[in-house]
Amino acid sequence: MNVSSEPADMVSRQKYFGWVGRLSAAQRGVLIAMLIFATMFIVYGWKQAAGLSPNMINTAANKGALLALVAMAQTLPVITRGLDLSVGATFVLANCLASTIVVGGPIETTFGIFGVLLLGLACGAVNGVIIVYGRLQPLIATLATSAVYFGIALAIRPQPGGLVNFELADFMTRSTFAVPHTVLLLLAVVVFIWIPYRRSVLGRAAFAIGSSEQAAYMSGIPINRAKMLAYTLSGLLASIGGILLTALTYSGAAKMSIANEYTLNSIGAVVIGGTSLFGGVGSAVGSIFGAFVMRTVGDLLIVFDINPVLQPLFVGVVLLVAVSLGSLRVLRIKNRLDIYR
Amino acid sequence: MSVSGVIARQFDRATLIAFACVVVLLLIGAMVEPAFLSPKYLIQQLHTASFLGVVASGVMLVILLGHIDLSIPWTIGVGGMMATGATGFLGPEWGVTLAVPFGVLCGALIGTVNGLGVAYLRAPAMIFTLGMNAVAQGLMVYHTGGFAPQDRATEFMRELAVGHFIPGIPNPLLIWIILGAAIVFMLNRSVLGRRIYAVGNQERSVFLSGIDTRKVILACFIFSGSCAALTGVLLAGWANRSYQAMGDPYLLPTIAAIILGGTNVLGGRGKYVGTIAGVILITILQSMLSVVQPQRYFAQLGVDIPADTFRQVVFGVVIIGMLLIYGRQQLVR
After folding, report:
1. Where are the domains of chain A?
2. pTM confidence score
3. Between A141, A277, A341, which is nearest B203 by CB?
């Protein structure tokens, strides 16, 4: 939606890059993230002594899907030029609640899942109300709410533990015809949440707000409702991630380090997935591949025999490089004044 | 301008509200426990507050520019761990003598990378500093995992954190007073101070006035990193050792203190006196929670809630509540 490139630029891009040049910025971002992931995963499978077994793919998919859901949650506010630092805390809170109420028979489990999803929606809605109607900075507001959500998670589960419905856990960790069920879950989220959202009026409005809030306001776009929806859906997606975490680990744990790790990695995944931190450009599909790239970095460290304690360092470096690559536009700006706000 | 005018100008509405909250909290505390108003308790609170005060001093300058420094938790860790582990890098003799400057220098290096990324690469500060936090964490985890470094504080660090150079005033408080006085002078009476406020208001105009705004940003980030590392050094001396997550509980209180003191998150507005008020308010609040112990009342009701829950929830709610009172953005359209 950014109209920074002139028509002449478009023509030359089409001439040199063929069909790739005709893609939008977001589509190119998804493509690049996909290619990086494919390359990394092939290298991983090739270095692995046992080769790529369905079991291994399943494990990799499960780890990646958790981050992918949180990264999708992060994508929606970022598109509106906001930020949600509470996705990690919402994820942990949903995990803790799910380990308490997603138990028992099929009916109780279903109600439990709905309860956790409602909690996610509520967390997101609270963020939205504070940011939209309280008119606070997204960064500070979500930093504060993340403390509150984490505190509640700690109250629900002071010690790690809890249970989860066994059939659900078993179903989520298995795969059908070598397709892990977690991948199917991601597909369902894309088809039933992301695509309808992207095509809805409020979804398009979110992109317009990210490009230029002032212009969006002048065009009569429902800014408040669009932002509310973005933050609320973000909470929902994070809580789906929390339920999946419960199913994969059979327990709940309120750990600050988990919340922080997922928040940080989600931002990295969003950037790698081609979503602009300046808003207006992006795709949740890109964030999925971004998440898988972030997770494969860890696996690659293991197969290349690099000390696993170096993993946070690599995640940080990947994030810095990704952000700095986005800053290369500084070199292309002709008028130096445009660099400054 | 008269001296009283200059002083009066330092106290804006937010600062007054924050100071009023401090007084109210102390009075409520005194009703429960009269010792709350004793000089010994108050000095002890100021002693604890000075750790937060030093780190908040640096971050405040960055926020005045309209940026933010989210790398402080692990910069504090780097400061503490590099100071105690300095013997591993500089040898047993120099490592003890230069422990404090070495720790602060490492923090300044992190600040430099932050500043280069934000000012020269124009990367968004919140993301870049968050990434830098992870990098610092990675380096420190590697450092402790690989070499089993010295984590004991030196004699001088211990003295710096718990001693009294001037009788009655703990050394960290003295450091905070000196640092604070220097910042108040710098912000109000120096060219750099003027430029910091100007960049926070509109960087473009400052650039057009012929000032290299990037150097101003770089300087503030270096200062922020150094202050965080200095806090780490003081904390290591206070606990007599350094450990990995020593900076983790400081991110939210630091930002909360600055914002409660009335500094605008978007930059350009804010007084250092407000930050002092915010730091004291946060410290008293923390102290009250540990004295009142609300978890006991819930335990009597048969509900087991960890103490940390109250700290987190109260912090979050207080920040949002205070911001809703005076930190709302204008509807500019």
Report:
1. 23-324
2. 0.84
3. A341
Query: Can you list the pairs that A80-83 forms with residues at least 24 positions away whose Cβ atoms lie under 8 Å?
Result: A80/A206, A80/A209, A80/A210, A80/A226, A80/A227, A80/A230, A80/A279, A81/A209, A81/A210, A81/A213, A81/A278, A81/A279, A81/A280, A82/A131, A82/A138, A82/A227, A82/A230, A82/A231, A82/A279, A83/A138, A83/A139, A83/A142, A83/A267, A83/B126
Query: What is this model's ipTM?
Result: 0.78
Compute the count of residue pairs across chains A and B with CB atoms less than 8 Å apart: 160
A269 part of contact set with chain B, CB < 8 Å: no
Whether B101 maps to a domain, the answer reads yes
B127 touches chain A (CB under 8 A): yes
A23-324 CATH fold: ABC transporter involved in vitamin B12 uptake, BtuC (1.10.3470)
Is A256 in Cβ contact with B305 (below 8 Å)? no
**Could you state, in chain order, the average pLDDT of each consecutive group of 10 residues for chain A (341 residues)?**
49 58 71 81 74 74 89 92 90 89 80 89 93 86 90 84 74 75 87 90 89 85 90 93 88 82 86 81 87 82 74 80 74 68 60
List the one residue out of A272, A280, A260 whose CA is nearest residue A317.
A272
Q: What is the CATH number of the domain that holds B93?
A: 1.10.3470
Mutate to test the interface with B, among A132, A154, A221, A310 (most CBs of B within 10 A): A154
Residue B43 domain-assigned?
yes
Please answer whether residues A123 and A239 qualify as being in contact, where contact means their C-beta atoms are separated by less than 8 angstroms: yes
Q: Does B139 touch chain A (CB under 8 A)?
A: yes
Domain that holds residue B75: 32-277
| Domains held by chain B: number | 1
Q: Which of B112, B113, B118, B130 to mutate to test the interface with A (most CBs of A within 10 A)?
A: B130
Q: Is residue B213 domain-resident?
A: yes
B110 CB-near residues (< 8 Å, 6+ apart): B71, B75, B78, B132, B136, B225, B229
Q: Residue B324 and residue A134: Cβ atoms within 8 Å?
A: yes
